[in-house]
Amino acid sequence: MIIIRHEDVETILTGREAELVDLVDHAYRLHDEGRTAVPHSAFLRFPESRRERIIALPAFVGDDEQVAGVKWVSSFPGNIGKGLPRAHAAIVLNSTETGRPEALIEGSLISAKRTAASAALAARVLLGGEFPRHLSLVGCGVINEEVLRFLTALRPHWPEVTLYDLDRERAAAFARRCAEIVPGTRVTVAADAAGALAAGTLISIATTVSEPHLDTAACRPGSLILHLSLRDLTPEAILAAQNVVDDPDHVCRELTSLHLAEQLSGDRRFVGASIGALLRAGGAYRRDPAKVTVFSPFGLGALDMVLARFVRAAARKEGRGLEIADFLPQSTDQERR
Predict the structure, then answer these.
(1) pLDDT in tens, 118-156
(2) One Pfam family for this entry, by name (predicted)?
(3) Number of separate domains in the chain
(4) Burial class (CB within 10 angstroms; exposed 0-12, middle 13-18, buried 19+) of 114
(5) Which domain holds residue 100?
């Protein structure tokens, strides 16, 4: 068993955005080919509050280096006011031959980076590689900071970035970090969410809301929204948009905006494509210039497994992590009794 701490994960993944986009691309293609097993995530909620939750995401990836495991990730929005990260995660990888757990990896950074990598990949595919000058980020937390890093790996300079967050101080602090990530970019903090939606034609939404609160009336025709937090847009906005997802069965659950749209419309015909199918087809997707396109990824556990496998391999190669030889029973004596 190898135990890999957050510090080691951060060292391994820093500056490797392009590689991680390729890994996410690989995972999506495998999923579309039916070479993954991704059961529905299990949500543990608490009677006192519906905002806090802990989610189990099990997955198997059946390529030449098979990997299986589970991510156990919490989301406690109240942590932000306590000076703690909103999300914490641990990933366990199991042997696909014996089922024995082989790695325990701190997973919050893997979770954030795979989300951002999927967003950047979708933007590249759905925009046909033609990135706009202006990027808007709604929600100034860890996820959108990673989104900015990953989009910058694909487009090295963004002339303009517009930010919005309910917490103005949080938005101001994020603006200062933007100057470090993309030097020379003109950064503006919008007065409200509508202002951010109207400013750019590429918009990433990553908030902690639990119920829809945004429509797309302020968006310019042809805008692309990376709807990463899944519950911001109203079901009516989803039904009026072109929609691309990672997996319809996964994303139309747990009262996401798309789940509510399905309940409102009675079917899933509003889902136009999955990202894996588009990748396998060469990325061809005809966007309606008069409509808003929305990419809504539920966040497949297969992505976490592929990145965790990458981290484990790098940790062993670089001599990182803590190897524990006696974590598991070494004989079958107990099974004979």
Answers:
(1) 999 999 999 998 999 999 999 999 999 999 999 999 998
(2) OCD_Mu_crystall
(3) 2
(4) buried
(5) 2-110+301-323
